[in-house]
Each structure stands twice: as C-alpha cells, then as structure tokens.
Design brief:
The chain has 101 residues and is mostly helical. The chain has a domain of 51 residues. It is built from two helices and no strands. Helix 1 packs antiparallel against helix 2. Pfam families: DUF543 (PF04418).
Length: 101
C-alpha cells in the first residue's frame, strides 16, 4: 500500500506543478504579447509559445519526479570496429613539358 501512496503523491505533485507552470507561462506570454505585439496573430503566437514553454517545463520536471532523472535525447552512433578505409592515392598528373602547353 505504501507504493500506491507514493505514486499518488507523485501524480499530485506532477499535476499541481503542471497546472501552475502552464497557467503562469501562458499569462506571461499574454502579458508580453499585449506589450510587444499589435496584430492578433502575433499575440496568439506569443500566448501559444508561453503555453508551450510551460508544458515543456512541466514535462521535464515530472519526468524527474517519476524517473529520478531528466529526460534525455539518446544519440545512437553507428561506430564499427572495422579498420578505416585506406586513404585514396593522390592524383598523378602526367608530366607535360612547358613548350607543349
């Protein structure tokens, strides 16, 4: 039963954090949109950007709450253990005497 209570506490913390981050960043985007932009399209874009920042920040912190580590992009590199290909030989130009050019 302790594990279920722990998961419920994590969900409560994550929902609370998410709601606050999204609301505050959306309000910040709306306030900056009113100050900086004139057209409705750019104002809505600033509000949407603020909401996106809040969602991303909440997602990042909720992943830390649940997993204990931040979300990471993993880069899969395809490195082989084979020997590298030999370097190509330099191009050899035929010797042409200067009076024939």
């Amino acid at each position: 039963m302790a594990g279920k209570a722990d998961v419920n506490a994590k969900w409560d913390a994550c929902v609370d954090l998410s709601v606050r981050r999204v609301v505050y960043s959306t309000l910040g985007g709306a306030f900056s949109a009113l100050l900086l932009f004139r057209t409705p399209v750019t104002r809505w874009a600033a509000v949407a950007f603020g909401a996106g920042v809040g969602i991303g920040s909440a997602y990042s912190d909720c992943s830390v709450i649940f997993d204990g580590s931040p979300a990471k992009c993993t880069h899969h590199s395809k490195r082989s253990t084979a020997l590298p290909a030999p370097a190509p030989a330099p191009l050899e130009t035929p010797h042409v005497p200067a009076h024939q050019v």
